[in-house]
Design a protein that fits this description.
By secondary structure, this protein is of the alpha/beta class. Helix content is about 40%, strand content about 15%. The protein has a seven-stranded mixed sheet, sandwiched between helices. A three-stranded antiparallel sheet has the order 9-10-12. A two-stranded parallel sheet has the order 1-11. Strand 3, helix 5 and strand 4 form a beta-alpha-beta unit. Helix 10 packs across helix 13. The two termini are about 30 Å apart.
Length: about 400
């Protein structure tokens, strides 16, 4: 098997599993308890919180553990809207956000809030000038993702943070795909809230965190006990949090080396596929993208057929976000960057890891080329296009979208 769907989830590192195991069977005390047996659990939570805070340039008491990225996004957006409703009811986001953000904004629109969904350019980049023009006197929140989960484009977060600060507006970023893969400094980027999820950087599933800058009046997500400084009640997922902390530590220590290796592998795969498969488009920014992200659109192809045939060759990939798998609708991200529906349906996302090799990329590129040729040979649209190209003398085999 060649696993190229690390944007959907990653393999939990053995060191992370090893760190977690004692907190299932040996140090299983409730960290809210007062007796000594609970001390190891308390200390483990504190250590994980410190690690995450250090990785962001934040304070430990600004890190709140959650059940994952979607929960963190919901908390940041929904409860900010409610807490600052007296100040205004306008939120700014983009058309390419994860559905955890988009659907939360749609929910708020049904409850009296106004939301502006910014356009992006053909690379999926938000224009800071468009953001600033969208600000109103009643704007209370800007939510723009750090990097897109489908096409990998890294957004101009520093400039967005500067604009938000200038206008006195809170800035939230969904960093689920970026955290652990690219450097993030919440002070430098002037971020007020940041969402992340453990299983995107070789940690366990079902655990994440939300960074909340000191002074932000965010309401409690879950009411009950006093956990997470009374903002998220419920006994903490100690093993999961320990695993997240360990994964964060490893991610920070290895980030530079991993990014260099993965981006080299990424660029090699892009070159091989673009050279071998005509009428192919690379989606997302060519250089300002996540180190491990590759996203293609193939004309005259159906992405789902391509995925099934790749699976038969032992290659795990996706056509977009794992959260929308099974949907027959084209990607909202690809439509937002201007692709027509018929081309957006022919998308393929390949997300690498340090465990992949150049030899695997050669195999993958070869299989994509062979499968694309096979599927197009059965496509009346492609056959018609080729005949037209031959009649006009165009070199159709060299074409690009």
């Amino acid at each position: 098997m060649i696993y190229l769907d690390n944007a959907a989830t990653t393999r939990t590192r053995p060191e992370v599993v090893e760190a977690m195991l004692p907190f299932f069977t040996e140090y299983y005390g409730n960290p809210s308890s007062v007796y000594d047996f609970a001390t190891p659990a308390k200390q483990a939570l504190a250590q994980a919180r410190d690690m995450v805070a250090k990785s962001l340039g934040a304070r430990a008491d600004e890190i709140y553990f959650t059940g994952g990225g979607s929960e963190s996004d919901n908390w940041a957006i929904r409860e900010t809207a409610e807490a600052y409703r007296a100040k205004g009811n306008h939120i700014i986001t983009t058309k390419i956000e994860h559905h955890a953000v988009l659907h939360t904004c749609e929910y708020l629109e049904k409850h009296g809030f106004a939301v502006t969904y910014l356009d992006v350019d053909e690379n999926g980049t938000v224009r800071p000038e468009d953001l600033e023009q969208a600000i109103r006197p009643e704007t209370i929140l800007i939510s723009v993702m750090f990097a897109n989960n489908e096409i990998g484009t890294i957004e101009p977060v520093r400039e967005i943070g500067r604009i938000a600060k200038k206008h006195g507006i809170l800035f939230h970023t969904d960093a689920v795909q970026a955290y652990g893969h690219v450097p993030i400094d919440v002070e430098e980027c002037r971020i007020d809230m940041l969402s992340a999820s453990g299983h995107k950087f070789n940690g366990p599933k079902g655990v994440g965190f939300l960074y909340i800058r000191t002074g932000v009046k965010l309401r409690a997500l879950i009411h009950g006990g006093a956990q997470e400084r009374r903002r998220r009640a419920g006994t903490e997922n100690v093993p999961g949090i320990v695993g997240l902390g360990k994964a964060a530590q490893i991610a920070m220590e290895t980030m530079e080396r991993r990014a260099e290796y993965e981006s080299g592998l990424r660029d090699y795969l892009i070159e091989q596929v673009m050279r071998r498969v005509p009428y192919t488009r690379l989606n997302g920014h060519r250089t300002d993208r996540l180190p491990n992200n590759v996203n293609f659109a193939f004309q005259f192809l159906e992405g789902e057929s391509l995925l099934i045939l790749l699976d038969g060759k032992g290659i795990c990939a996706s056509s977009g976000s794992a959260c929308t798998s099974g949907s027959l609708d084209p990607s909202h991200v690809l439509l937002a960057i201007g692709l027509p529906e018929e081309v957006a349906h022919g998308s393929l996302r390949l997300t690498l890891s340090e465990e992949n090799t150049k030899e695997e990329m050669d195999y993958v590129a070869g299989q994509i080329a062979a499968i694309a040729a096979r599927l197009r040979s059965m496509s009346p649209l492609y056959e018609e296009y080729v005949r037209g190209a031959e009649r006009s003398g165009r070199k159709y085999e060299e074409g690009q979208i």
